Amino acid sequence: MQQWATHDRQALLSEESRPRFEKARKRPELFKDPEQLRGALLDFIADFANWDNCTNADFLSTSRALTQSAHEALGGEKGTRPLVVDPFAGGGSIPLEALRVGADAFASDLNPVPVLLNKVLLEYIPKYGKHLADEVTKWGEWIKQEATTWIRREFSAF
Which among 120, 65, 113, 74 is positioned nearest to 96, based on CA atoms? Predict the structure, then answer.
């Protein structure tokens, strides 16, 4: 958390969390106090939850390091990633957040529609990325052309 007390990262912090990190920048021993460290972690989480920070590389790398540290501190084998299991995943926000902070995710649901959406969101997009987007665009255009041709042909008499 001490890295978030530096001047260059101060601009990323909210008005509410900035004073705590400013104090820690002047007095690094402050984060040796468990209450202050807990407060800094909660401030970091609150700032990371801000939509503007959700894809910021500094926030992402720190959240992944914190996730890995927590995993290992709680008995996870060094070098492995924590696993988040969501048997009622629905729209997939929990598994998606797990992937974003460096954990592995397993998602399931009784409804086949969310299962398919989660498969695309959690497996195919990370694996195929831009190629998948290009293919969806290409085939979407083909369907649009075919539908337009069919409509013109079927309704040309009207």
Answer: 120
Q: What is the mean pLDDT of the chain?
A: 92
**Which pLDDT does position 5 carry in this prediction?**
86
Q: H or E element: which one contains 40?
A: helix 34-49
Q: What is the pLDDT confidence band of residue 158, given thresholds at 50, 70 and 90?
A: confident
Residue 157 tokens read as 């008499």
Q: Using pLDDT thresholds of 50, 70 and 90, give the confidence band for residue 65.
A: very high
CB environment 95-131: b (16+ within 10 A), e (fewer): bbebbbbbbebebebeeeebeebbeebbeeeeeeeee
Cβ atoms of 91 and 109 closer than 8 Å: no
- For residue 36, CA distances in Å to 16, 40, 117 come to 14, 6, 41
